[in-house]
TrEMBL record:
PANTHER family: EXOPOLYSACCHARIDE SYNTHESIS PROTEIN. The keyword Ribonucleoprotein does not apply. Keywords: Membrane, Transmembrane, Transmembrane helix. The keyword Transmembrane applies. Signal peptide: none annotated. The chain crosses the membrane at residues 39-59, 131-164, 171-194. It holds the Pfam family ExoD. This is Exopolysaccharide biosynthesis protein.
Length: 199
């Protein structure tokens, strides 16, 4: 009697890829190809994962600009993600991929258990363009040169991206709230700094 293997979840696919990676890792193009994903949600989730890991340096800086490019494409209404060669050829080594996979399981394993189609109207073309617009700012804030500034917006982007994959509007809203709160915090800190210097 034969038993069919259950299909891998998205996080399981990332874990498997990290295990199979050579020491120098894979390029972003190779990562997308190996995961057989072309949706914006999947691409953004993969790139956001290393940004969520505290004290992981180097990788967030590699992926932040490609994340902005993908978010901008969403905002402009593009239906499939595309990366310029400059970004697609960037590599994440095996160590970075392993930490990304472990972090994905640790921080976002709960998403696989609760995600389901809800408030799917948010994923209509107009809704996705609005989501993309906000994601551009969330991704841009990862570039702010302050300690651990990649973690909070990375988590916001990852939750939104997982919501897009699962067509779960509740997760999209939750991630958007986290990202918006972070942007508001940065603006408040900048305003306070300006007042302190000018005062």
């Amino acid at each position: 009697m034969t038993h069919e293997l259950s299909p891998r979840t998205f996080l399981q696919s990332i874990e498997s890829m990290a295990q199979e990676a050579p020491e120098d890792g894979f390029s972003l193009r190779e990562i997308f190809d190996r995961l057989h994903e072309r949706a914006f949600g999947a691409a953004l989730f993969i790139l956001a994962l290393p940004c969520c890991i505290p004290f992981l340096y180097g990788v967030p800086q590699i992926v932040s600009l490609p994340m902005m490019v993908l978010a901008a494409q969403m905002a402009m209404g593009r239906r499939e993600p595309w990366l310029p060669e400059k970004f697609a050829s960037r590599k994440i080594d095996k160590k970075g991929l392993t930490r990304t996979a472990n972090g994905g399981r640790k921080w976002f394993g709960w998403l696989e258990k609760i995600a389901r189609p809800r408030l799917t109207f948010l994923m209509a073309p107009v809704g996705e363009r609005v989501i993309g617009f906000f994601l551009v700012f969330f991704c841009a804030s990862i570039l702010v040169p302050l300690p651990s500034t990649n973690t909070v917006p990375g988590i916001g982007v990852a939750i939104v991206a997982f919501g897009l994959m699962a067509r779960d509007g509740i997760l999209v809203i939750l991630g958007s709230i986290i990202g918006t709160a972070w942007i508001a915090t940065l603006i408040a800190l900048v305003a306070l700094g300006v007042r302190t210097v000018s005062g």
